[in-house]
Automatic annotation (TrEMBL):
GO terms for biological process: immune response-regulating signaling pathway. InterPro entries: Ig-like_dom_sf (IPR036179), Ig-like_fold (IPR013783), Ig-like_Receptors_ImmuneReg (IPR050412), Ig_sub (IPR003599). It is a single-pass type I membrane protein. Belongs to the natural cytotoxicity receptor (NCR) family. GO terms for cellular component: plasma membrane. It comes from Oryctolagus cuniculus (Rabbit). Keywords: Cell membrane, Disulfide bond, Glycoprotein, Immunoglobulin domain, Membrane, Receptor, Repeat, Signal, Transmembrane, Transmembrane helix. It is found in: Cell membrane. This is Natural cytotoxicity triggering receptor 1. Residues 35-117 form the Immunoglobulin domain.
Amino acid sequence: MLNSMLCCRGGAWEAGRHCPPSPAGMYDTPTLWVQPGPTVTSGENVTFYCRLETVTNTFFLLREGGPSHAQGSHGAVPAEFPVGPVTSAHTGTYRCFGTYSAHVWSFPSEPVKLLVTVRKGTW
């Protein structure tokens, strides 16, 4: 299970602390994907992958309306965010960001929607 982390979104920390402005702006757009796929059965394990072409040191995975998770990665190696076993509570829209420094962030990835279906025979 991943630990919740604070993350800068739209100029403010999720916990209410102000995030310093990004004087250099944002760069690049990461690619986000999930394996084994965007539709899984409850009880399965999934892994989100986030990759940027440029070197970054930390990636954040965010679920709309949920906590963020941080993962380090260097170079062209994608960051991995293992999640599971999943339940219907994991259903949602996810995006990732990369950071170049505490003040410089990538653009958000395109959204990935994870749908967790209930295994037949369970409630």
